[in-house]
Automatic annotation (TrEMBL):
Keywords: Cytoplasm, Methyltransferase, RNA-binding, S-adenosyl-L-methionine, Transferase. This is RNA methyltransferase. It comes from Lactobacillus xujianguonis. Gene3D superfamilies: 2.30.130.60, Sun protein, domain 3, Vaccinia Virus protein VP39. Residues 1-298 form the SAM-dependent MTase RsmB/NOP-type domain. InterPro entries: Methyltr_RsmF_N (IPR031341), MeTrfase_RsmB-F_NOP2_cat (IPR049560), MeTrfase_RsmB-F_NOP2_dom (IPR001678), Nol1_Nop2_Fmu_2 (IPR027391), RCMT (IPR023267), RsmF_methylt_CI (IPR031340), SAM-dependent_MTases_sf (IPR029063). S-adenosyl-L-methionine binds at residues 104-110, 128, 155, 173.
């Protein structure tokens, strides 16, 4: 039984009434709701998990538990995520070609869904201020096969200087008091206090003030938290309406009766539009706690300045020429890529690929004015590293190649071989293939390998992803 703070219980008894609050407290002491999404970008989407119970109002999302050593996870075929946390990316309704920012992106659940919706067109900027958490963000975006993401490690103020009025949509899953995580992470109870809620509210406003600067006139802001407190939810939305001129938009695609709506009466403003926001309570049995809203920035999108566009294109071309592959480098890259069936993201690689410090990549963003001064973790699709007149293909490339059917694949027959490979070991294989190959288990591609003349599969699974022990 979790020891919920007395002030927390008193607060929600007052807001919800004693009967509904009792249901909430009882639900917080029950097991967490776990779920996963299936990746529609991958060529093979069959999974071994039960799909009898779908998450309401979401595509390709089901209740169930994922093991981090399962081939479904390792190959990026599934993403384990709290079901309620899946909704902010859903309601963003991202379209191919849009410019999208996930401002507080780690560990990557929302970024993978946003990038997936772009279908390789447009750009996703996935930002995380934590240097530790941004590593997990990169791993998850790569595993999911997103090829057009710029991953950055900056504070919101730094980003705002580079991207004024730039994005069509911005998702801010703001740092919060974490009340919705009490049953998932009981440690969150220890640092909860009424004062902490106000600290979080202040931080949320600071982040949103920078997000407002980066959103185009007429652009959409998706705001979410994993907390129940009106101070961080309805009051923040009311502040955006009253101070920043935003308009709250309805979310008609969410129809489940298990999902609640916002409470205007919990704010001083009493804005009727707050009823359009979404609330996820643990007693409604969808997932953990979540709040979500869509708001639209005032104003009309600016007219395109043709002269400025031509100037930018000219500058991009100069930068591209400076980093473009030489004839010899293009040949080395082609010797690897020409052996595989290429998805759309790679069809024009010879024209798009750049090289910097021997890293060959197809950038998601080429405008140097947007990149200057940023801590960039990854820009687009890393193809590989040039070494001694050869290209060593990247792990990200393997995950992207998994989007289409491949023939140059070694499928590991035994689970023991699969776990050995994840552990970083070489494996004896029965194949006539030689050189670089894609490696799969249960037909799910998850890595590159290299077959020697002795039919030994040399290990190219990244050291940072390897398992410490074989279960």
């Amino acid at each position: 039984m979790l020891n919920l703070p007395t002030s927390f219980k008193e607060k929600f008894e007052k807001l919800l009434g004693k009967d509904e609050a009792a249901k909430m407290f009882a639900a917080i002491n029950q097991n967490t709701k776990k779920a996963y999404r299936v990746n529609p970008l991958k060529a093979i989407q069959q999974v071994s998990y039960d799909q009898d119970e779908a998450v309401p109002d979401l595509d390709n999302a089901y209740y169930g538990e994922v093991n981090g050593q399962d081939p479904e996870w390792v190959s990026g075929t599934v993403y384990s995520q709290d079901p309620a946390a899946m909704f902010p990316a859903k309601i963003a309704k991202v379209k191919p070609g849009e410019k999208v920012l996930d401002l507080c992106a780690a560990p990557g659940g929302k970024s993978t869904a946003l990038g997936q919706a772009l279908k390789g067109e447009g750009v996703l900027v996935a930002n995380e201020i934590s240097g530790t958490r941004v590593k997990a963000l990169r791993e998850n975006i790569e595993r999911w096969g997103i090829s057009n993401a710029l991953i950055t490690n900056n504070d919101s103020e730094t980003l705002a200087k580079n991207f004024p009025d730039f994005f069509d949509k911005i998702v801010v899953d703001a740092p919060c008091s974490g009340e919705g995580m009490f049953r998932k992470n009981p440690d969150a109870i220890n640092y909860w206090s009424p004062e902490y809620i106000l600290t979080c509210q202040s931080r949320q406003k600071e982040i949103l003030q920078q997000a407002v600067k980066m959103l185009k006139p007429g652009g959409k802001l998706i705001y979410s938290t994993c907390t129940f407190s009106p101070e961080e939810d309805e009051e923040i939305v009311a502040w955006l309406v009253e101070q920043e001129g935003f308009k709250v938009l309805p979310i008609p695609e969410i129809t489940s009766t298990k999902i609640s709506h916002g409470h205007p009466e919990w704010t001083n403003s009493n804005l009727v539009e707050l009823k359009e926001t979404l609330r996820f309570w643990p007693q409604d049995n969808v997932g953990e706690g979540q709040f979500a809203a869509i708001l639209q920035k005032s104003g009309e999108p600016a007219m395109v300045n043709e002269k400025k566009v031509k100037k930018n294109m000219k500058n991009k071309k100069k930068q591209h020429n400076k980093l473009a592959l030489t004839v010899d480098e293009r040949k080395l890259v082609g010797e690897v890529l020409d052996q595989f069936d290429l998805p759309i993201a790679l069809k024009q690689w010879s024209k798009q690929a750049l090289v910097r410090q021997d890293h060959v990549f197809i950038p998601a963003l080429t405008d140097e004015s947007k990149l200057r001064g940023l801590k960039i973790v990854n820009n687009g699709l890393e193809l590989g590293l040039l070494k001694k007149k050869r290209l060593e293909p990247s792990h990200q490339l393997a995950e992207v190649l998994g989007q289409v059917s491949q023939t140059r694949v070694v499928d590991l027959a035994q689970r023991e071989d699969y776990l050995s490979y994840l552990h970083g070991e070489t494996v004896k294989v029965d194949t006539n293939l030689k050189g670089f190959v894609l490696v799969s288990y249960q037909d799910l591609i998850f890595s590159f390998g290299k077959v020697t003349g002795q039919k030994i599969l040399k290990n190219f699974y990244p050291k940072g992803l390897r398992i410490l022990k074989k279960n």
